[in-house]
C-alpha cells in the first residue's frame, strides 16, 4: 500500500492554517522538499524522514503500525 504523504501534508496545512515553512519546521523537512512532496514531484521513502514527519505531526503510534512505532512506545508485557 502506497502512502501519499504529500496529500497528508496539504490536508494538515489546510486544516491547521499553516504555511509550508511552518509545517516544514514542525516535521524537520526543508520547505523546498515539502513543496516537491506536495506537488508529487518527490516522494518520501526514507524511513527516518517518514518517522520524523509522523512524530512532527504527533500521529498516535496506534495509527502508524508496529514498524513505525518507537521501541519505547511499545506496550509493556509486565
Overview of the molecule:
The longest helix is centred in the N-terminal third of the chain and has 12 residues, at 5-16. The protein has 5 helices and no strands. Helix 1 packs across helix 3 and helix 2 (20-27) packs across helix 3 (31-39). With 78 residues, it is mostly helical.
Q: What topology emerges from the helices and strands here?
A:
Blueprint: H1 5-16, H2 20-27, H3 31-39, H4 47-56, H5 61-64
Helix pairs in contact: 1-3, 2-3
Report a brief summary of the structure.
The protein is mostly helical and 78 residues long.
Q: What would you call the structural class?
A: mainly alpha
Strand count: 0
Shape: globular
Strand/helix succession: HHHHH
Cα separation of the termini:
34 Å
Which percent range describes the beta-strand content? under 5%
Helicity, as a percent range: 55-70%
Parts with pLDDT < 50 across at least 5 consecutive residues: none
Task: Please tag this protein with its features.
about 80 residues, single chain, globular
